[in-house]
Design goal:
Length: 305
């Protein structure tokens, strides 16, 4: 099944306890499409970059089977730039700089060849842009999944609520779930958020795993305890890309299959954090992915006599 991803393609500057980078390639849609490339071959991207974005990186996405016909290049514009700093506790980070640049007034054009997509991943970007993408699809996808962040809850809440009403699945972290709902209990927060539109909700808890909510059902997926987390940037997007890539590959959006998808997403995210930026994601093998998934199975399966 085909997957369409929209979201930021960016330059990031990162600082973690392990080191510092100058501008490296990042962005929600970059991580999502790279992670999804290990599952689905019909991997279509809609995003915008400036003339300063390196052609080699676009080639790299193409080499991973990502269709970049929908990647607009604004020659005289600057690519979205984000800078963040992590402390010892890598579950929280400070955003130092967000420069929307070409992303601010992006008009997402959907190439005709992308129409009819069965799976839509609205990665983190301006909520009004996310909504425009839905409106421009001739046929409603089988599953629309959305990721967002605290920035949009703070500066574009009405737009965010209006797109939330149109999506099937929302993925956010625990802090954002509390901000969006005004509830501390994640169970209460989930109820309130699902009443805003999405029938399914994933709340990510960083190194403490992720919760999947649908109706009255809850499933919990652990994160793999790693000896070293080098750089958590993109873990949430990589998780989303692995999750929806797996759903698209299996063409099954049942709750049972979402449980498997969440494990695949978590496995992909566990690779992402092992190196800076997208480094670890660009040359994984199927064997590595399968054996990592098995580690997740071993981590939490037990028998009760
Ligand atoms: P994650 O660590 O999965 O939450 O996502 C990190 C990525 O999100 C980075 O590569 C950033 O370029 C991107 N990002 C950060 N802030 C924003 C924003 N306001 N809109 C879109 N993408 C963003």
């Amino acid at each position: 099944m085909s997957l369409l991803t929209v979201g930021s393609v960016a330059f990031d500057a990162l600082e973690t306890p392990f080191g510092k980078t100058d501008k490296i390639i990042g962005g929600a849609a970059t991580y999502i499409t790279l992670a999804a490339s290990y599952f689905t071959k019909q991997n279509n991207l809609v995003a915008v970059v400036g003339g300063d974005f390196p052609k080699e990186m676009i080639d790299l996405l193409e080499e991973h089977g990502v269709n970049t016909n929908g990647l607009e290049i604004v020659q005289d514009g600057k690519t979205f730039f984000w800078s963040g700093k992590y402390h010892e506790d890598m579950n929280t980070r400070d955003t130092l700089i967000t420069e929307l640049n070409v992303m601010e007034h992006f008009d997402p054009i959907i190439p005709d060849s992308y129409q009819g997509t069965e799976f839509l991943m609205l990665g983190n970007t301006v909520p009004a842009t996310q909504k425009l993408v839905i409106e421009r699809l001739a046929k409603r996808p089988k599953l629309i999944m959305l990721d967002t962040m605290n920035l949009w809850m703070n500066i574009a809440l009405d737009d965010l609520k209006s797109v939330l009403a149109l999506v099937d699945l929302l993925t956010i972290n625990d802090e954002e779930a509390r901000l969006l709902s005004g509830e501390y209990s994640l169970r209460k927060a989930a109820k309130k958020i699902m009443a805003m539109g999405p029938k399914t909700l994933i709340i990510k808890k960083g190194e403490h795993g992720a919760l999947l909510f649908q109706d009255d059902r809850i499933f919990f997926a652990p994160a793999l305890p790693l000896e070293e987390v080098f750089d958590p940037t993109g873990a949430g997007d990589t998780f989303a890309g692995g999750f929806i890539g797996y759903l698209a590959a299996t063409d099954d959006i049942s709750f049972e299959n979402m449980k498997r998808a969440i494990i695949y997403g978590s496995a992909m995210a566990s690779f992402c954090v092992e190196k800076f930026g997208t480094e670890r994601l660009v040359n994984l093998s199927q064997e590595e992915i399968n054996s990592r998934v098995q580690e997740f199975v071993n981590l939490s399966s037990f028998e009760i006599q």
